[in-house]
Amino acid sequence: MERSPHSLxxxxxxxxxxREQGFTVEPNEAMLTPHSTQAYQEFVEKKNxxxxxxxxxxxxxxxxxxITVGVSTSGAPFKSPGRVGDSPLPGCxxxxxxxxxxxxxxxxxxxxxSFHVVxxxxxxxxxxxxxxxxxxxxxxxxxxxxxxxxxxxxxxMKGEVGAASSVEFPYTFWKRDMVKVQTxxxxxxxxxxDKPGE
Length: 198
Description:
Blueprint lengths: L10 H10 L13 H11 L10 E7 L5 E7 L22 E2 L2 E2 L3 H4 L4 H10 L4 H15 L9 E5 L5 E5 L3 E5 L8 E5 L12
Antiparallel strand pairs: 1-2, 3-4, 5-6, 7-8
Helix pairs in contact: 4-5
């Protein structure tokens, strides 16, 4: 997007821009295998709801105090053409502020969780408390039967890391003084009882 005045392009406009930039664009028909056609037919008939998609988030803080975030998603299966999820939208799937930083994208983007985690940290919360506060707020506003998978991971400018989630999920982090990458498990947040540990 360094070569465009726009922040987000989708659909035919994105395809045209990609071609202008020299990218090879494969026709959609190339992805229609017998297996994918059958999976779509089962999805339409409601016999088999697809699962197994996931999102990868990254937060990096360098020795000069520069911080950045990135998000990559496998995406929701069988989405409508032109659908934009939470991953590319600042404040929804990712958010960074040089004074503080930061499942189901279509549902989580309505709450701008990454933005709110950063705001909590700017007000003095540690990353774990900020994530728990934002997730508690989201879960308290969604009916139990309509709750969705969401995980929040945050890091502040001191390199402190915290997380909260509605389902169990692993995350890793590494700092320069660590011998190896540390793996943690974020356990589901219980909004009616005690705060679980990380």
